[in-house]
């Protein structure tokens, strides 16, 4: 639904780019209309790990008088929540992402509703890979586009009148819509980046050993 940074205690620096401490507020939408939406006021802390490459994000609710309870929202309590992202041992091209979710939703929330909330959280995890691919593609230079192609360079389907040619953001192959996969840049302007299915697969298997993604607040539940 929305989130806001209330107070920044410590900002990232050149020497410590992943050190961040703040007080934040966020609201999450209920998966069903008869259960009220939830919000939380919490401390947000990012620190870099010692030893293996990685970082830890810790979230914990606080009672801040200036952060008033809002009409239509139930204030939940984040007890122990966060993320741990570590470089996989022996696999510098992979990272391990762990999520800890321990909170009190407050109020009467059926178990099956909590399961729906958890499903939404897991769907957010599935989007992490796409965000990493988009970040990598956004850093590459766009090569020359071949405007004269008459067929899709992946499936060899001929381009007919009215067919839109799509150029891969990474290799510049001309392809049809069926052979393209559109991802979104993680930069400020959130530019749409068309890529061919071949490059998307290659990029996802050649990711840098460590990429920090500023992921949005996602729905959490008590377990």
TrEMBL record:
Keywords: Metal-binding, Zinc, Zinc-finger. InterPro entries: Rab4/Rab5_effector, START-like_dom_sf, Znf_FYVE, Znf_FYVE-rel, Znf_FYVE_PHD, Znf_RING/FYVE/PHD. The keyword Cell wall biogenesis/degradation does not apply. Transmembrane segments: none annotated. Gene3D superfamilies: 3.30.530.20, Zinc/RING finger domain, C3HC4 (zinc finger). Residues 146-204 form the FYVE-type domain. One of its GO terms (molecular function) is zinc ion binding. PANTHER family: FYVE-FINGER-CONTAINING RAB5 EFFECTOR PROTEIN RABENOSYN-5-RELATED, RABENOSYN-5. This is FYVE-type domain-containing protein. The lineage of its organism: Eukaryota, Sar, Stramenopiles, Oomycota, Saprolegniomycetes.
